[in-house]
């Protein structure tokens, strides 16, 4: 999944979708990026393939929004593994400082 | 909603701790499998860590002795760096051979008052974390909470 996040532009697009403002059109998402709208569309398709974003129709417009579920799962797993390390390092501390 | 900076840290875990012990002491605790196992909470089947070596570990917490893991040692630079690759906390009975391993790096530096240890586990960008989340949820429901309770008991 995270291969989809490896590119800086994709990361920035994801961040932009996170920042709120709700579902966004390509035009709005592309604002401020030096890459073309076509490139933005391609990035969104990669993110969509990884299940991180989805597109929908809002009237005649096509908009993109986050699929928060998968990202939340990944975050939760990393938080859990991070806690494992905190606890292991606490034990290391006790072990070497005795 | 996730913030941008949290998105960017989805590929690694980084920890930094200052240990009030000499560098050589900390290095021993890391580089000797028997000592490593003692604080990590596992029994390792190797007497030393050599670059390229495959080491099997068995979790030592009561009730979790069926959790095993495999480390592949990467770099051993005395008193500076120890690194290995593994599949973190692989759920028993599942096949992780198709998954890339993460890289764990322990770095030591002398600081005022002792030794600063930095641990970085990286490579999560290629690990199917959402699938792993599912596996943890399905496995013994509440694995994380149980493990925490067991660890608290063992470290008393």
Write a structural description.
The complex is a heterodimer of chains A (98) and B (156). Chain A has 98 residues and is an alpha+beta fold. Chain A folds into 2 domains: 1-66, Arc Repressor Mutant, subunit A (Orthogonal Bundle), CATH 1.10.10; 68-98. Helix content of chain A is 60%, strand content 14%. Chain A has a 3-stranded antiparallel β-sheet. Chain B is α+β, with helices and mostly antiparallel strands. Chain B has a single domain (4-154), classed as Alpha-D-Glucose-1,6-Bisphosphate, Chain A, domain 4 (2-Layer Sandwich). In chain B, strands 1-7-6-5-4-3-2 form a 7-stranded antiparallel β-sheet. The longest helix of chain B has 12 residues, at 143-154. Residues 1-5 of chain B have low confidence and may be disordered. At the A-B interface, helix 1 and helix 4 of A face helix 1, strand 1, helix 2, helix 3 and strand 7 of B.
Sum this structure up briefly.
The complex is a heterodimer of chains A (98) and B (156). With 98 residues, chain A is an alpha+beta fold.
- Annotation field: number of helices of chain B: 5
In total, the number of domains of chain A comes to 2
Strand content of chain A: 5-15%
- What would the average pLDDT of chain B be, to the nearest integer? 83
Mass-distribution shape of chain B: globular
Give the total of beta strands of chain B.
7
**Which structural category fits the helices and strands of chain B?**
alpha+beta
CATH topology of chain B: Alpha-D-Glucose-1,6-Bisphosphate, Chain A, domain 4
Tally of DSSP β-strands of chain A? 3
**Largest interface, per-chain counts?**
A-B, 42 and 43 residues
- Count of alpha and pi helical runs of chain A: 4
Give the % helix of chain B: 25-40%
**What is the terminal-to-terminal distance of chain B?**
38 Å
- Going by CATH, the homologous superfamily of the largest domain in chain A would be Winged helix-like DNA-binding domain superfamily/Winged helix DNA-binding domain
Sequence of strands across the biggest β-sheet of chain B: 1-7-6-5-4-3-2
Q: What is the name of the CATH architecture of the largest domain in chain A?
A: Orthogonal Bundle
Q: Mean pLDDT score of chain A, rounded?
A: 84
List the secondary-structure elements of chain B in sequence, H or E: HEHHEEEEEEHH
| Rg result of chain A | 19 Å
CATH topology of the largest domain in chain A: Arc Repressor Mutant, subunit A
Q: Helix-strand pattern of chain A, N to C?
A: HEHHEEH
